[in-house]
Each structure stands twice: as structure tokens, then as C-alpha cells.
Write a sequence for this structure.
């Protein structure tokens, strides 16, 4: 299977081993959908054991990514943290800030009540 064919269908450059310009440490696990059909249980075991995503191809093109539930939840958590950080950066750039003493006073009040 040609990695060049797979690369052309992705904006995130996944199969050139970079995501958003950041180099990936390993060559991704890539399997055709026919292999998934014939050995789904084996593929699931591999996904769980390796904690690495498996890229599923159909007709030589990337079609889906399979990952363990734990890795998916970690990914979603990381994404949420990045969104919060981006929101905070935007608030700072727009001058929407609160003095540290005001935040600490509110935290102390909440701790006393709860």
C-alpha cells in the first residue's frame, strides 16, 4: 500500500508522520478494512495492548482511526484542556482578567462554605 496515496487525502499530514507540524514518534499502524473484517478481535487486542491508534484504509485511502477507549478519553481530556487554555489566552489578549487576590478571596470563601 502506498503511503503517498494515503497522504494525499489528509489535511493533517498523518501518514507523513506529522500532525500539525509536530513529528510523530512511530510509524502509524495501518490496516486495510478487509483485514479488520477478517480479524476484528485481533485488531482490538492490538489496539488495547499497544495503546496506539490503528488507521483503517478502504480502497487504499484512510477511512477511519480505531483507538482504545482509554486513549480516546485521554485525547478528549487533552483537547478540553487545550480549549480552556486557548480561551484563557484570548481573554488575556482582550483584557478580560481578574486580579489574583480577587480569585484567591473567592476560593477561600468557597472553601469556608463547602
Amino acid at each position: 500500500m502506498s503511503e503517498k496515496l494515503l497522504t494525499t487525502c489528509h489535511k493533517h499530514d498523518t501518514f507523513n508522520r506529522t500532525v500539525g507540524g509536530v513529528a510523530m514518534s512511530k510509524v502509524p499502524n495501518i490496516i486495510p478494512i478487509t483485514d479488520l473484517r477478517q480479524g476484528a478481535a485481533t485488531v482490538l487486542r492490538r489496539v488495547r495492548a499497544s495503546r496506539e491508534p490503528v488507521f483503517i484504509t478502504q480502497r487504499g485511502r484512510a477511512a477511519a482511526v480505531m483507538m482504545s477507549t482509554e486513549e480516546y478519553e485521554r485525547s478528549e481530556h487533552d483537547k478540553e484542556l487545550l480549549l480552556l487554555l486557548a480561551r484563557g489566552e484570548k481573554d488575556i489578549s482582550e483584557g478580560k482578567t481578574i486580579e489574583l487576590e480577587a480569585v484567591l478571596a473567592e476560593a477561600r470563601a468557597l472553601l469556608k462554605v463547602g
Summary: Residues 90 and 96 are 8 Å apart (CA to CA). The radius of gyration is 21 Å. Confidence is low (pLDDT under 50) at residues 1-14. The helical segments are 3-7, 33-38, 40-50, 69-93, 100-113.
